[in-house]
Design a protein that fits this description.
The protein has 204 residues and is mainly alpha-helical. The chain contains ten helices and no strands. It is elongated, with a radius of gyration of 20 Å.
């Protein structure tokens, strides 16, 4: 099978510009509201030039989501079965909060895809994501059975961590409207609150 030619420096630059522009457009307007014209303008490229790199809006969206999934799964992969249970879970909370802090547009892109029924990543959700969550849920259940953390449904524990951390990216405008525009202070406050919440929740 013939391997594709490596991209030139200009091609890499344009591909990066397209993906960054698309991330901004998709995170603001969602998949349905975004257009190739908007993405081309944001990337400072002509539409025909954009189509040289990606044949369709869906191709751009899939490229973004594919890259995002690894970023999304890595914090859960890092949960160590041999670590101290409470420390491992609090560490996971911190990592998820940091993802929301560092990648708010990516978080909103992912949320929009889920709201639409995940047509472009449904197989990943039912495959790689489900496998990983089930694996870590068994780890959590083992800690609960051993009396190392308080009993709770392990899957819903993971869901609650997602909800409580991704909120600060997905509802950023609402958070800043209520707490003020200082994003750094808002995330620091969120981490302090979540530390108290999960330490109390997990105490055996």
């Amino acid at each position: 099978m013939t391997q594709p030619k490596p991209q030139t420096r200009i091609q890499k630059k344009n591909t990066t510009a397209i993906l960054d522009a698309a991330l901004e457009v998709f995170s603001q307007h969602g998949y349905r509201g975004a257009t190739l014209d908007q993405i081309a303008r944001a990337a400072d490229l002509s539409k025909p030039n954009l189509l040289y790199y990606f044949p369709s809006k869906e191709a751009i969206h899939v490229a973004l989501l594919s890259g995002l999934m690894d970023t999304w799964l890595d914090p859960l992969r890092a949960l160590d079965p041999d670590g101290k249970p409470v420390d491992e879970i609090i560490g996971y909370v911190h990592r998820k909060l940091q993802i929301s802090r560092a990648y708010p547009r990516e978080s909103r892109l992912f949320a929009n895809e889920i709201i639409q029924g995940a047509p472009r990543i449904h197989e990943v959700l039912g495959g790689e994501l489900k496998t990983l969550v089930d694996e870590k849920a068994r780890v959590l259940q083992g800690w609960m059975d051993a009396g190392q953390i308080a009993p709770a449904d392990p899957h819903h524990l993971i869901f609650s961590i997602w909800a409580l951390t991704q909120h600060y990216a997905d509802f950023d405008v609402q958070v800043r409207a209520i707490l003020g525009p200082d994003t750094g202070r808002n995330f620091d406050g969120a981490q302090a609150y979540l530390d108290v919440l999960f330490n109390k929740l997990l105490a055996p």
